[in-house]
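tl;dr need the bound structure. longer version: we got a ligand (adenosine monophosphate) that a collaborator sent over and nobodys looked at where it sits. i said id run it. heres the input, straight from their email, havent touched it
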Amino acid sequence: MAQIIRDPKDWQRRCRTAREAGRRIALVPTMGYLHEGHLSLMREARARAGAGGLALATIFVNPTQFGPREDLSRYPRDLPGDLAKCESAGVDMVLAPEPGDVYHPLHESWVEVTGVSQGLCGGSRPGHFRGVATVVAKLLNLSAPHVALFGEKDFQQLQVLRAMARDLDFDVEIAGMPIVREADGLALSSRNAYITSSERGAALSLSRALFEARDRAARGERAAPPLIAGARRALEAAGVRVDYVEVVDPETLRPVAEVAPGSRMLVAGFVGATRLIDNVALIPGSP
Ligand code: AMP
């Protein structure tokens, strides 16, 4: 059975002992309400830790990455179900702490990644990536992993964390994993639990618009503006209140005018009250 640990300091002692004993440690940070996307990361963590290693997951709805008008208090939770899923994915140990045990009452230290945090979700969710980078820095310090795994679903988050590890000399590999989708294309997300059946078509339009842009790029459309305009039109027609549609360089996340190999289209929009994000790699084809 996957062992559940509540106290971060207890967790840190166990992780340090394991690392000193030469065991390989792979970490998957999550906010819980687990789905196949999370489990794909955990199975990869199990594989990367190897037989004698430790596959770790954390379940923590991190308050510092939510804005004042966001969904912190109603974020979906199911700890018993999550533990069973962690177990099924081969996780050895799960940290599920209370916010008061993660953040000292006098907490006053923050990790701020600049360039790549700005724009996109960073533009519409001020302070979000500061909260993410800070909690992940803490989880890396608590867990001492050799590798930490994150989904490309949150593509900007992945690049922010890569920049943080690079710039602050974290001795860890930040591994990105492909987006897991429903059969119809909808990217799995804990927030899909908010989507009603009448909103499903609008939610689906995100992946549809991205796939359409990917296909147009593959057929030879290299200019970003018409790809962006087409995706925006499709989202609006489906009833999505668009936050952004952009084509960006995959490392800097700066907008590009022309699609190049690895360029990424990222979208965010509101379906009813629910904010959804998705993205896809664009591969330019010849016309
Ligand atoms: P969250 O619980 O939303 O903070 O997500 C925890 C980790 O799971 C993050 O690294 C996410 O990028 C990743 N993740 C969430 N949804 C998916 C998905 N559909 N496919 C792959 N990874 C995902």
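gonna send this back to them w/ a short note. The chain has nine helices and nine strands.
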